[in-house]
Amino acid sequence: MPSAILAIRLLIYTGCRLNEIMTLQWDYVDFEARTLNLPDSKSGAKKVFLGRPACELLENAPRLPGNPWVITGTLPGARLTDLQPFWQRVRARAGLPEVRIHDLRHTFASTAIAAGHSLPIIGKLLGHTQVQTTARYAHLAAQPAMIAADSITDVLDRALAA
């Protein structure tokens, strides 16, 4: 089902919560600003910043006449209401029976941390209102810190050897 695939890809590319994508309407999409302007989320109104691949997904997504939903259902004017059956098939085929849809949000955050982005920026991308919420991902920052430590000490080691 193309709308289910679109939903999964948007979850991966945005770090949004499931309900934020499943209830996404075309009126919330601002292509010029590259944002989703969600009127209601877990933490209230939320602006989601879209990377280029997410924008391209939305630009190429089919729009059904008379249907305000991005993730459309099978009935005219309706949205897809249950992604779980599709997700269960995907994870079974991938051999990942324990992976939850919400883990895609964690993957977005851990990828951002591994890329060296700060917790405040990641919190803004995820729509966290409290830094402590984003700080739960701080343990994932060890690898970039180790790479930085190696890089710095390599330079210092070469300087000391000279």
Number of helical elements: 8
**Could you describe the largest sheet, including whether it forms a barrel?**
3 strands, antiparallel
> What is the C-alpha radius of gyration, as a whole number of Å?
19 Å
**Number of E-type strands:** 3
Helix content: 40-55%
The 3D shape can be described as: elongated
CATH superfamily of the largest domain: Intergrase catalytic core
Trace the largest sheet across and list its strands.
Answer: 1-2-3
CATH class of the largest domain: Mainly Alpha
- What is the CATH architecture term of the largest domain? Orthogonal Bundle
Give the CATH topology of the largest domain.
hpI Integrase, Chain A
Task: Supply the helix-strand structural class.
Answer: mainly alpha
Task: Describe what you observe in this structure.
α1 (2-14) runs antiparallel to α3 and α1 runs parallel beside α5. The protein is mainly alpha-helical and 162 residues long. A three-stranded antiparallel sheet has the order 1-2-3. The longest helix has 20 residues, at 142-161. The protein has helices at 2-14, 18-22, 52-60, 84-94, 103-114, 119-126, 131-135, 142-161, and strands at 29-30, 35-38, 46-49. It has eight helices and three strands. It folds into two domains: 1-98, Intergrase catalytic core (hpI Integrase, Chain A), CATH 1.10.443; 102-162, no CATH class. β2 and β3 (46-49) form a beta hairpin.
